[in-house]
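TL;DR need structure tokens for one chain.
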Amino acid sequence: MTMTFGRAAAALLATTALTFALSACGPEPEEDAPAVDTVPEETAEPAAEETTEPAVEDVADTGTSAAESLGTYISLVEDTVPSILESFGGVYDSLEVTGEAPGTVIYTYTFADEVDPALGAEGLDAMVSTLQELCDSVVFDEMALYDVTEDPTVVYTYLNPDGSEIWSHAFVPSA
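>> reply
TL;DR here they are.
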């Protein structure tokens, strides 16, 4: 299975939106970093051209456990981490994607340079509605495609290089 355009774009959009929100809080991205609305070339194909992606019913009928489904999904997301990090020219030192069964995906971004925690939290708080819309319109649908449907939750956590937390928020599907 390959990473779909939606998932790759969602990960990039979340990273882009949050990087933009924090741009006033830390050093400027390198000059060759993409503009806020840029999608890397490898993800710029329309989703309709994807032919290796199974239909939702194909995945749901496999009989896999919630933990196995979550693990499969996380493995696919992890495959996009190098391109996401590269897209931002050193803004982030790392991005770790982990999970907690039955359906929580945790994205932990660590900045390469120190970010003022108060300003960072303020900027990220301003992005909550945008991130909720992103999760509702793309991420939760993608999780469901891989049968991650029990208590679907996405957590975004941002850390300073010393490991101190700047901000964390859990998103669940809107009613």
